[in-house]
Amino acid sequence: PIEPWYIGGPVIKGFGRGSKVLGIPTANISAKNFSTELSEHPSGVYFGWAKLSTRGVYKMVMSIGWNPYFNNTEKTIEPWLLHDFDEDFYGEELHLAIVGYIRPEANFSSLESLIEKIHEDRKIAEAALVLPLYSKYKDDKYLRSPA
Ligand code: ADP
Ligand code: MG
């Protein structure tokens, strides 16, 4: 059986590389409050559901780790919400129900191969999240708005 895990917080500013360098925006949340969760789950690429407080619940594919291609020194949590938004949503409350693991973190010899891999990850996430096994967590209570 699947054991989802949960993290969340306000969307914070990262290095701004997602959209600008990769064409792939990632809504970063702070890793500081989740050292336990992060120590229990390996770095890598995950998928699941993302609730943006004022907007809705969306599919997401997410990197957790040090982004070896960019040589980061701090672990980042970076979900890409699989939806087209008209505007940024920095500061908004984002809740994540993480239901599956795709692969460990990897380095890439070129930006193109990194981008290609992320799109492969997205396709895997899109396909998995329509399966009943994973789709049911769209209604997870962690993603419900407070009454
Ligand atoms: P940063 O390094 O500040 O995270 P990014 O280049 O990764 O910058 O862009 C992320 C920002 O883009 C998010 O914080 C959010 O406000 C916005 N954004 C727009 N569309 C999306 C999306 N589909 N998924 C994630 N973030 C998005
Ligand atoms: Mg980002």
Automatic annotation (TrEMBL):
Domain named Riboflavin kinase: residues: 1-130
Name the UniProt record assigns to this protein: riboflavin kinase
Whole-protein residues included: 235 to 381 of 387
